[in-house]
Specification:
Blueprint (H helix, E strand, L loop, with lengths): L21 E9 L3 H10 L6 E6 L14 E10 L3 H12 L7 E8 L23
Antiparallel strand pairs: 1-3, 1-4, 2-3
């Protein structure tokens, strides 16, 4: 505590270049394009992904029956340096060049908690950087 009774804060300075940031890439793609997307991600070295099936509802005044198009939601966690390659790989392999192909969302992973060990250090998500 300082002279006023306020707690003393100690801030550790670490160069950002030394910290590997993890990113979560979530991609909603057409179910019939999943095999191509999966192959493309394996080809660039993505170690694994999580898949969930979903149905999307039609939007707007389009005559295309989007509610009948099944999509899958892919979730991949990769190192910050690999995000561009993963997004481009998904975009290229999932595209049919038509409306309703899906979307890709990238977000930062701030914390990882292993349920079994109750560790909160992110060691569960130690992935090698994808090769060039």
């Amino acid at each position: 505590m300082d002279a006023d009774g306020a707690p003393t804060l100690y801030i550790m300075s670490v160069p950002l270049d030394d910290i590997s940031q993890l990113k979560k890439v979530e991609a909603e793609v057409r179910k019939d394009r999943f095999a191509e997307v999966d192959f493309a991600l394996k080809r660039i070295g993505v170690p694994g992904l999580t898949i969930a099936e979903e149905k999307t509802a039609g939007r707007g005044v389009w005559s295309y029956p989007l509610e009948n198009v099944k999509h899958v939601l892919l979730t991949v966690v990769v190192d910050d340096s690999s995000v561009g390659r993963v997004v481009e790989s998904i975009r290229e392999s999932a595209s049919t060049r038509s409306w309703g192909d899906g979307r890709i969302v990238v977000s930062q992973v701030e914390n990882v908690l292993d349920i079994g060990s109750r560790q909160c250090d992110g060691s569960e998500l130690t992935f090698p950087s994808l090769g060039a």
